[in-house]
Amino acid sequence: SSRTISLLSQLEKINLDSVVGESDHARYVTSKILHLVQSQEKTRKEMTSKGSTGIEVILSTLEVKFSNFCGYGFIAVLHFIIMKCGGRRASVLVTKGGTQILLQLLLTASKDSPPNEELMVLLHTLLAKIGPKDKKIGMKARINGALNISLNLVKHNLQNHRLVLPCLQVLRVYSTNSVNAVSLGKNGVVELMFKIIGPFSKRNTSLMKVALDTLAALLKSKTNARRAVDRGYVQVLLTIYVDWHRHDSRHRYMLIRKGVLQCIKSVTSIKLGRKAFIDANGMKILYNTSQECLAVRTLDPLVNTSSLIMRKCFPKNRLPLPTIKSAFHFQLPVIPASGPVAQLYNLPPDVDDVVDESDDNDDAETESEIETEIDDDKDQHFKNDDIETDINKLKPRQELGRPIEELKMYEHFFPELSENFQEWDLVSKEPKPFVPDANLSGPIVVPTASVE
């Protein structure tokens, strides 16, 4: 009976019929629905209430009729509903198959030359909003061929921050998938992110924050991390962090500074990254900046992240430590004149004597990242081989504190532990054979005192 239900029923008829003038009628119905959604809270509730088919009708219309008329109005309706009604409606849009439809629309709209900027902004904003609700959006984007559309838009519109921001938000969602991160890295996304985050500038800090989050997600891939190290970007990240530390005297941009540290943390997960961090004097830089942040409690996240990075990158040494790095000396009683121990004692103080073998299988791991799809395996339960299930092995072993020979001196205090008590016949003064009682469930021996 309401105006909204009447308009939705007209859309359903448009989807089923094939009339010459349907495009004009569809535009009219779309403008009316958009006006009602923007102006009336009641209409938004009707569109998104439980049992309503409003979102389904709009999605089916976009899927069927998008090529025949401009679907900007329908996407604007979805955009307004999602932005006003929050994440709960984003989950509804995902369950109705909205992710797949929006990716197909993005692919269709990208074929126009030049693409409609307003339409691209709305599509990317919607995808960025519903992306965290859809765990398989990265795989869907790669299958549909929409993975590089957002990347190409950023490459050709670096100065158009209104378009670049939602595109970066979508790339951040895509980069959580390791296969997508490797694919985007091969297409130059790492270099593109460094063009956005540097040099230092307090303009467009929201764009800077999203770019840093995207870069941190990309650098979790070892392939992208090596690419960043080879191009000297570790030194660039440290320089950017120092610049923000010096200029952010009122601590208004703590999230940006933490984003830079997250990028450094990601790139130092590989051996080459840790070496580049040490060579760039990163240990001293993070130590000095952390000392200056200790007085401000709101900067504790920066100190904690810096501590994690320094602990991870600090050179490791085996025991015993004869160098100045340790406050204790563990002198061995006998040290052969030649051997591995003597070689360790003869090393200079600044040499890392622990061989870092963490990245020896990088190539194999990179191939497995590309060939293996991890999205479908996240929800599957697997057996942990590290958990011991043998009860006998889990029981603690009870060992005597003294040998048996030393404990024999206490036998006369506890005769019940060693002597074999039997029932004696008082007449014959000999042990009687035990006869179990029929009423008893089992044999019971009742010890009695011996008779002289």
Automatic annotation (TrEMBL):
<feature type="region of interest" description="Disordered">
    <location>
        <begin position="433"/>
        <end position="452"/>
    </location>
</feature>
<keyword id="KW-0378">Hydrolase</keyword>
<keyword id="KW-0645">Protease</keyword>
<dbReference type="InterPro" id="IPR016024">
    <property type="entry name" value="ARM-type_fold"/>
</dbReference>
<keyword id="KW-0121">Carboxypeptidase</keyword>
<protein>
    <submittedName>
        <fullName>CBPC1 carboxypeptidase</fullName>
    </submittedName>
</protein>
<dbReference type="InterPro" id="IPR011989">
    <property type="entry name" value="ARM-like"/>
</dbReference>
<dbReference type="Pfam" id="PF25571">
    <property type="entry name" value="TPR_CCP1_N"/>
</dbReference>
<dbReference type="GO" id="GO:0004180">
    <property type="term" value="F:carboxypeptidase activity"/>
</dbReference>
